[in-house]
Amino acid sequence: MNEVAETHGVQFRILGSFECWDGNDRIRVGGPVHEKVLVTLLLEPQRVLPVFRLVEAAWDENAPATAAHQVRKAVAELRQRIPGGRDLIVTEGPGYRALTAPTQVDLGRFTEGLKQAREAAAAGQSAYAMTTLREALALWRGPLLSGTGGSVLSAASAALEERRLTAVEQLFDLRLASGEGSEIIGELREFIDAHPLRETLRGQLMLALFRSGRQADALEEFAKVRDYLIDELGIGPGDALSELHNAVLRNSPELAPPQLPAAVPFTPEDKPSTLPYDLRDFTGREAEVSELLGFVEEAPGSGPLIVAIDGMGGSGKTSLAVRAAHQLAENYPDAQLYIDLRGFTPNGRPLSAGAAAEALLRMLGVPGDRIPDDAEGRIALWRRTMSTHRMILLLDNAMDDSQVRPLLTSPTETLVLVTSRALLVDLDAAHTVSLGVMPPSDSVALVEGVLGRTRAQNEPEAVAQLTELCGHLPLALRIAAARLRKRPRWTVRYLVNRLRDDAHRLAELNSGERSVEVTLRLSYEGLAAETREAFRLLGQHPGSEIDTYAAGALLGISAREAEEVLEYLLDMHLLQQHETGRYAFHDLVRSFAQNLARGGGTRRQPEAGGEQHAAADGDDEIMRAVGRLLDFALAATDAACDLLFPGRARVERSGPPTPTAELPPLETVEQARDWLEREQDSLLAVVSLAYRWEMDRHVGLLAANVVFPLDLRGRLEEFRELGRIAVAATRRLDDAALLRLSLSNLAVACWKLGHLTEGIAMSEEALALAIGLDDRRGEAKDTGVLGLLLSTLGRYDEALPRLQQSIEIKRQLGAERAEAESLTNLSSLYAEWGRYPEAVEAATRSVTLSRSIGSVDKEVEGLTDLAVARIGLGEIGAASDLLARARKLAGEVMSPADLSLVLALSAEVADRLGESAQATEWGESALHLGDLSGVPMREAAVHNIIGRFHTRNGRYATAFELHARARDAASRIGYRVEEARALAGMADALEQMGEREAAATHRESAREAFDAMGIPTSRAA
After folding, report:
1. Which of 264, 478, 493, 945, CA to CA, is 20 to 30 A from 22?
2. Cα(346)–Cα(350) distance, rounded to whole angstroms?
3. Is the pTM of the predicted complex or chain greater than 0.85?
């Protein structure tokens, strides 16, 4: 199938930051997941990409359990948001296919351009090849998703970058072959600085230098690259570069440039206009507009009419020139051309006259093969073309007279409008219009036009003061009026009071030098003092995104007030927004904000064990803000975990309750689940922030909450790392109670990951602390965790009394959730030991307790263990019913690894009931639901269960392989019962395959292991 969706009006730009356009309207497709999924599809149009490929692209190796669901949801939303999206992204088989035409995606046009350029070059059509290459390379704005797409998209970006560099080298070859030399030296040096190992670029630079009469520089360039290659790679230059070096040494005539043809004027067929749009609310400047129009109407002579408009940055030079050009357009019908000469542009070089001439010729539609390749030839053709036409030429943002003068000619009927921050005194015959600040009356009119006449006229005195504070500068006036318009509750007087102390406002607006920092500082210093403070404090948030509630906590204001601050910073382009209600810093902006905060003072280290910092004045404000954020995170996770994990015990807090910021809506289980899912990464970052600030009590308390959702989502390595951070922080704090809790949680993470020795050490230390503190709840938990670890090691005689003791204490304390959890652990021990009636009793009690407190996650665990016990008793029908209920409830309350176990058990039960198709489906799902390698206990159990299923169905080789993998996982962590079961399963498979000797060896090893654990061989499976 090669259908292409009929959505050619929709355009996608993926070579850089992602953009989707429907005509002139930009389409917001959604958040990062939406963009990654769509970009991945657009990289391979017309190909079906399975869901798992899209999951990898969106999350790399850290996909959540719901990743496949989220991908399907993202695709559904993309289809809704993109015009014609249902025909653009189609479902086929295991995945999706993007039915885009090559012209719809910039990558498609890029690829086609490179292909056409290669073909044209091969056919000797060098001019056309260069034009096509330039057009293709102009599409490149950077790596996919600006380099934020993750490893999958980064790999694709690297391949595309190699294609781009190859095209750049081809273009330089063509330009050199057409006679260019000195014109490309600067461009070549820029590419070499970014890619110093590319010998082709080095050779092209040597040739360009040689042809510019700089033989010594060409030889020096060879010496540089030779030394660089030896230092970096231990090798010398390649043969091609060495041969070029020898040719330069010999001054070989083969390196001479070719002769160039003379330029011929060009007559455009169309009437092109590239003027920017005229501002609808253009205000004031009547005298200047009238002066300019009057000069044009009355000016005599045959030379070009030149009007030079100068003034400070932000004074409205371009707006004035554009308005005049539109009003005069009818008198200059051949063309109206606009070009930015980039005289005062951040991080940009002024446009050379040759480059400007080429751009202007292309605007007129001059074919690429008609444009000379050397700068002088292009300028000559432009001046000849200009002399034969009646048009408007707007040269914006000129650096000085020398940049403009080569583009002018006489005689001509062209009107030339030039804008510059500099007074162009040496531009002969030019009429000068110098713009200062606006008169007070025009300033007021501009504020009224943006803010609204009624609101402005209600406070005429305040509006007048506002225009003075803005220096009557149009840009500042527009910013101030827009701020008021977006905040209808603000009075003009309120804004005047906020701006009155802003000492650096106008000085920064007058800045003539621009860099990233200066440009950001320009926006930053233009803010009111309160907003500047908010910007600095918001930069302390460690997550990739921030919502209004977390922002309110940092700033010490309500979420609604924080939203106003965030929206304003968004309007000022100091924040970005990928999803409604959530805001993000660009990395450079975040660095700028944090540098501002660090500039306030040097942080001093606190005293050992102290919760508070002895900080310099500049840090006090930030520390208070971070403290508010931590209090908010603690209160929000308390509320969310109480809803999601009913019956859990909150950690007791010392001291009076801390007032917290406004919390998000956390009134239902769904709201709590969604909030934790959305904020999980930010919460981890917040804990790390607290640790860096040595706010160790917050670290311990917050970690105790955050481990719950990590455990639920199966993010066990992060669970363990968080536990280690909490242990380190609470040791530093010297708080025995918090240390005990942190050790206990770390022990649980170690158990789940199979680090049993470390887990036992942690739980024994925690238990000793609990006994020393007379902490009965802690003693109950840590005794149970220790019993669980010992049980996993097959030390049932030691584990059983500890689990029983833990259950008894928890029953006495009324800790029903904790008791239910320990009862499932006890049931698992009995089942592994082959004592199935006792396993049934313990699991039944666990299920009853869990239902009584509404703890769905613990109920599912109890149902699973009860099913295991029923299977052990041969009650397959009862086990099937239990597992059906477990699957129904599992939904969002079970980790992928635990759900894999439920599915594996379901496959075993279905198989025993004769439901082979259903058993096969569940068995496959159990093995592929998630990556079990990070959860070795579940990996061993699941592979053993599915291995026995395959043995029963005659697939012995597959069974043997699964049991072998189970043995490896179990032996790696010392999970003795599953290791023995794996050996027994391998023996069964080997025996059926006729390898009786090997089977006997494995069976004997299994028997010895079961005997050592006291498990009757007849009940071992």
Report:
1. 478
2. 10
3. no
